[in-house]
Amino acid sequence: AAIEQNVWWYTCYHNWNAVINGGCGLAALALGDEDRNAQKTYSRATTGLRALFAALGKEGGWAEGAGYWGYAMRYALLLGEAASRLADDQRIFHRRGMDATGLFGVYFTPNGHAASFGDSPTVPVYGTLYNLVRHYRRHHRCRRLSPAHSHRPAESKTPSDQESLHTENSQAHN
Question: Is 103 within 8 Å of 45 (Cβ atoms)?
Answer without folding.
Answer: no
